[in-house]
């Protein structure tokens, strides 16, 4: 492989935590010349390399040093030890609309913000139309920025930043600006940049974003590199370690009034074997056993499926399916049968719940007690979360045929 | 080397300067008129207090034969006001742009240089009006314009150097803003703005001349009021002081600016 475009070589950064901050003469005289502070290493001995065209993700909990590392990369902070080198033009989506001035018009601010991001006037002239077009703010472009809503402000900022068209793009969770349509346009644009060979460094809490966007991932923990490697491996380990931590949520992993409780959860294939993994498209039955201390009239049973980074795939209840039982008592088993599980390859968690009909306090709400694997069937779809089992037809144009009457040839 | 860096990012400097200029008088009715009304107001006050009440006599121009306290005053007041305002505004602008400094990287000195740059524009307008006034009273200043321009460049460099040094130090030590408020008062009276240098006792003259602002105002008076070349010693001294101030200010600023994002 060619030389890396980003080299982070044993970088450490320390911050000072001041006890009594004295930026004033009086305090300086009273306490002697030095402020009292503790040193705190936000980054310790971090090394990694990013190669041209890679999408490199950085994950870690809050305070793990992700943002500090990005700020070191962009030059905002200077590391105390080690060195960083970047080859190529860089644009950082850390702060949208940096330097925007409310009294200036959108047009003037595009030039100002562009210059801060390192674009020359000629370059902005050339891309001006496209910037305005992308932002969708043509009508307001000569208005002063103070008349913009915060969403418009962010859209304009994003449009300028994305048009810097850098060789290396540094993104810090700003993909979620504007409305849904703008968000989609933004993430399409980043995907397009990636496909055209730009290098991307991406920091996010949203693991599914990291998963779709990144091929390599670095996991930071308390300023130290915990793991660097292929995105799937690192993300899997990260999720595992995150789930090991006992939940501090007062509602806990399981709570409820307890008149009826689940006692076990199992998964079976069509042949009736207890299983822990299956392929996409196979049939499956979840069997939930319960114990009721008293007869429970019309309990609402529900379950929810989550990807291992916490995205809720589906959460059906017996209410929507008119399947709520009249009464449950004693011990018994609830079976949920799924003919064809459409989930793609991955690890999934199952939550189950029993609620009274009015959906007030649950009898039993059990959060993610059961985990299973889906392995891919032969020749799987590559992207997305589920398959729709699409069928394809090819033939003449059927303009006159209304939907309902359309029949496959 | 360090000056070459500045050239590479000059577009940003230009944009910051434009931002200063465009926003300075936004939403005020008289707008740019203020940059003229302000010096005129001060001129009126000082002429009344020093020229009339205290009866300070402006020397007769040599060889111009001009004798006018207000014009004599303005030759010194304009560069002085430029200097003091630049430094004060620069110190505030670095603190005021803390959000920007914490979030984006760009050469930080541009914030200071843009502040000074925008005030250079004001000074140019003011000096032009002063020269028109000089012409109206019969002082032929036109041949001396190149000298004024060179002097202006040196003054801008000197001012930028001091402004960079003090605004960077101010990030770490905020009392400097207030200390500067006192210093600027003392410095004003230590500079022959409202009185001629000839009123200063001979034995203090040497000390007086060490003050670069004394040399700046004297040189500008030589050019515009007296219509003569400033002395070679003055020009040499100003060149030395300006380059030293600018380079030293820039080096110190660059060194201190590394931790701005944490300290602001």
In summary, what is this structure?
The complex is a heterodimer of chains A (409) and B (264). Helices cover 22% and strands 34% of the residues of chain A. Chain A is α/β, with parallel strands linked by helices and 409 residues long.
Folded structure, characterized:
The complex is a heterodimer of chains A (409) and B (264). Chain A is α/β, with parallel strands linked by helices and 409 residues long. Chain A is built from 8 helices and 18 strands. In chain A, strands 5-6-7-3-8-9 form a 6-stranded mixed beta sheet, with helices on both faces. In chain A, strand 14 and strand 15 form a beta hairpin. The longest helix of chain A is centred in the middle third of the chain and has 16 residues. Chain A starts with 5 loop residues before the first strand and ends in a 34-residue tail after the last strand. The relative contact order of chain A is 0.11. About 2% of the residues of chain A have low confidence. With 264 residues, chain B is mainly alpha-helical. Chain B is 75% helix and 0% strand. Chain B is built from 12 helices and no strands. Chain B is globular, with a radius of gyration of 19 Å. The two termini of chain B are 27 Å apart. The relative contact order of chain B is 0.14. The model of chain B has no long low-confidence stretch (mean pLDDT 91). Classes of the chains: A alpha/beta (409), B mainly alpha (264). At the A-B interface, helix 3 of A face helix 2 and helix 5 of B.
Give the number of DSSP strands of chain A.
18
- Fraction of residues in H or I helices of chain A: 10-25%
Strand fraction of chain B equals: under 5%
User: Which two protein chains have the largest interface (Cβ within 8 Å of the partner's Cβ), and how many residues from each?
Assistant: A-B, 29 and 27 residues
Please, what is the oligomeric state?
heterodimer
**Which range best describes the helical content of chain B: under 10%, 10-25%, 25-40%, 40-55%, 55-70% or over 70%?**
over 70%
Overall radius of gyration of chain B: 19 Å
Main sheet summary of chain A:
6 strands, mixed
């Amino acid at each position: 492989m060619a030389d890396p475009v980003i080299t982070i070589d044993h970088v450490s950064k320390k911050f000072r935590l001041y006890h009594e901050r004295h930026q004033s003469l009086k305090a300086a005289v009273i306490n002697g010349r030095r402020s009292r502070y503790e040193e705190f290493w936000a980054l310790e001995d971090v090394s990694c390399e990013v190669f041209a065209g890679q999408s490199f993700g950085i994950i870690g909990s809050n305070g793990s040093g992700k943002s500090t590392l990005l700020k070191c990369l962009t030059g905002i902070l200077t590391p105390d030890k080690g060195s960083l080198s970047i080859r190529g033009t860089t644009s950082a989506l850390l702060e949208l609309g940096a330097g925007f001035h409310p009294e200036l018009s959108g047009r003037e601010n595009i030039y100002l913000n562009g210059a801060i991001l390192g674009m020359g006037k000629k370059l902005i002239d050339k891309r001006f139309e496209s910037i305005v077009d992308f932002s969708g703010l043509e009508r307001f472009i000569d208005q002063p920025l103070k008349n913009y809503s915060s969403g418009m402000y962010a859209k304009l900022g994003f449009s300028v930043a994305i048009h810097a068209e850098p060789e290396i793009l540094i993104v810090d969770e700003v993909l979620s600006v504007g409305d849904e349509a703008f968000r989609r346009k933004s993430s399409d644009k980043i995907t397009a940049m990636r496909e055209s060979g730009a290098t991307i460094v991406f920091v996010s809490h949203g693991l599914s974003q990291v998963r779709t966007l990144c091929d390599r991932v670095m996991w930071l923990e308390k300023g130290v590199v915990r793991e660097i490697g292929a995105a799937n491996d690192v993300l899997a380990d990260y999720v595992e370690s995150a789930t090991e931590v006992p939940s501090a949520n007062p509602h806990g992993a399981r709570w409820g009034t307890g008149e009826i409780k689940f006692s076990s959860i199992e998964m079976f294939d069509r042949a009736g074997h207890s299983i822990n993994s299956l392929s996409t498209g196979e049939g499956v039955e979840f069997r939930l056993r319960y114990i009721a201390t008293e007869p429970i009239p019309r309990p609402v049973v529900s379950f929810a499926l989550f990807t291992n980074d916490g995205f809720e795939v589906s959460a059906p209840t017996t209410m929507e399916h008119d399947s709520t039982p009249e009464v449950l008592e004693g011990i018994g088993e609830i079976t949920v049968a799924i003919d064809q599980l459409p989930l793609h390859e991955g690890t999934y968690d199952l939550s189950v719940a029993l609620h009274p009909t009015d959906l007030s306090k649950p009898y039993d709400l059990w959060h993610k007690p059961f985990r299973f694997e889906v392995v891919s069937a032969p020749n799987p779809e590559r992207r997305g979360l589920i398959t729709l089992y699409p069928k394809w037809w090819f033939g003449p144009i059927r303009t006159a045929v209304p939907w309902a009457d359309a029949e496959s040839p | 080397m360090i000056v070459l860096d500045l050239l590479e990012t000059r577009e940003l400097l230009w944009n910051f300067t434009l931002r200063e200029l465009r926003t300075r008088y936004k939403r005020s009715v008289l707008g740019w008129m203020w940059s003229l009304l302000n010096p005129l107001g001060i001129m009126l006050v000082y002429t009344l207090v020093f020229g009339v009440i205290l009866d300070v006599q402006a020397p007769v121009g040599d060889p111009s034969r001009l004798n006018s306290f207000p014009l004599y005053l303005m030759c010194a007041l304009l560069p002085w006001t430029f200097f003091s305002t630049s430094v004060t505004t620069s110190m505030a602008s670095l603190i005021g742009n803390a959000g920007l400094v914490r979030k984006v990287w760009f050469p930080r000195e541009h914030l200071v240089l843009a502040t000074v740059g925008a005030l250079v524009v004001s000074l140019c307008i003011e000096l032009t009006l002063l020269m028109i006034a000089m012409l109206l009273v019969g002082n032929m200043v036109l041949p001396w314009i190149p000298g004024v321009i060179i002097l202006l460049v040196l003054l801008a460099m000197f001012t930028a150097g001091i402004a960079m040094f003090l605004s960077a130090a101010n990030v770490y030590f905020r009392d400097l803003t207030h200390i500067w408020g006192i210093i600027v008062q003392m410095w004003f009276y230590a500079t022959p703005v409202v009185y001629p240098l000839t009123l200063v006792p001979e034995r203090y003259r040497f000390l007086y001349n060490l003050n670069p602002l004394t040399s700046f105002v004297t040189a500008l008076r030589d050019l515009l009021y007296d219509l003569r070349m400033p002395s070679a010693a003055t020009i040499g001294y100003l060149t030395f002081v300006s380059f030293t101030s600018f380079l030293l200010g820039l080096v110190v600023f660059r060194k201190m600016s590394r931790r701005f994002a944490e300290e602001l």
